Amino acid sequence: MTEAAPASAPESVGAEAAAALAPLHAAAFPPAERWGAEALCLMLEMPGAFALLCPEEGFIIARVAADEAEILTLAVAPEARRRGVARRLLQAASRQAAGRGAARLFLEVAVGNAAARGLYEGAGFTVAGLRPRYYADGGDALVLSRRLCGA
After folding, report:
1. Is residue 78 a contact partner of residue 28, using CB atoms and an 8 Å limit?
2. What are the structural domains of the chain?
3. Span 102-150, pLDDT tens digits
4. Each residue of 61-108: pLDDT tens digit?
5. Residue 108 among the catalytic residues
6. Each residue of 5-21: pLDDT tens digit?
7. How many CB atoms lie under 10 A from the CB of residue 110?
8. Which residue of 40, 56, 57, 143 is most buried, as measured by CB atoms within 10 A?
9. Which helix (H) or strand (E) holds 132?
10. What's the pLDDT tens digit per position in 17-52?
11. For the chain, how long is the longest CA-to-CA vector?
12. CA neighbours within 13 Å on the CB side: how many for 134?
């Protein structure tokens, strides 16, 4: 019997990692929703932005402004899905956002993305609103939020 490799802990990365993050984002999203290295770099250079990476598995980018935080993207490579990578990234980003003073965390998710909605609902997120035609394909997004502990 083969033992599973230990789960990698998310590590902080900055704008210098954008070129390494872009292929992961491309693997995780359909063509109309992919962000290239330049777009990822611009996001990471925004005030309050941070990224956490599980190498070769996935990453999350978030930003904190005042007492609110927002998940900008969460990308997990298809071959790493259903192994807890997204949950680890979400938990680590929540801790980091709370540590930076955020009391609430927000994100948008496609109405039809059942897997992501399940992840977020399991993490305590609730519906805070709807963004009609939010995505490039005209799809609607739910705005989800949750209170952060320790903030």
Report:
1. yes
2. 11-147 (3.40.630.30)
3. 999 999 999 999 999 999 999 999 999 999 998 888 889 999 999 998 5
4. 999 999 999 999 999 999 999 999 999 999 999 999 999 999 999 999
5. yes
6. 556 789 999 999 999 99
7. 16
8. 40
9. none
10. 999 999 999 999 888 888 999 999 999 999 999 999
11. 50
12. 14
From the candidates 33, 108, 121, 135, give the one annotated as an active-site residue: 108
Residue 150, burial from CB neighbour count under 10 angstroms (0-12, 13-18, 19+): exposed
Catalytic member of 16, 33, 120, 121: 120
Q: Is 33 a catalytic residue?
A: no
User: 20-26, long-range: CB within 8 Å, 24+ apart, which pairs?
Assistant: 20/53, 21/51, 21/53, 21/59, 21/75, 24/56, 24/58, 24/59, 24/75, 24/77, 25/59, 25/73, 25/75
Residue given tokens 């899905």 in the structure block: 81
- Amino acid identity of 81? R
